[in-house]
Design a protein that fits this description.
This protein is an alpha+beta fold. The chain has one domain. 16% of the residues lie in helices and 24% in strands. It is built from one helix and four strands, in the order E-E-E-H-E. Strands 1-2-3-4 form a four-stranded antiparallel beta sheet, with no helix packed on it.
Length: 101
């Protein structure tokens, strides 16, 4: 695991297409802004794990586990679709901000 120190408004690049920016630090919480192509899904780890379990259950022919039995619910927030950043007037892509919980 690579461990980096960053301060507010500093970024980390992953490959050529993914940028992670430190938006804010409050106590023991860090707010991250993530800029990535739409083709790369970005999820909190617990949501990613729930999606993987659901995929495995579907592959086995089982119904997915119902929320409330100790497993986190699968995130069902609709994804807002935006225009391709290369076709916008501003060349700066929008950032998605996730709060580390």
């Amino acid at each position: 695991m690579l461990v980096l120190s960053r301060q507010r408004d500093e970024s980390i690049m992953i490959g050529d297409d993914v940028e992670i920016t430190i938006v804010d630090v409050r106590g023991d919480k860090v707010r991250l802004g993530i800029t990535a192509p739409k083709s790369i899904p970005v999820h909190r780890r617990e949501i990613y794990d729930a999606i993987q379990r659901e995929k495995a259950q579907k592959a086995e022919g089982q119904a997915p586990a119902a929320p409330g039995n100790g497993e986190p619910p699968v995130e069902k927030t609709p994804v807002e679709k935006t225009e391709d950043p290369t076709h916008r007037k501003s060349a700066k892509p929008e950032k998605t901000t996730l709060e580390n919980e």
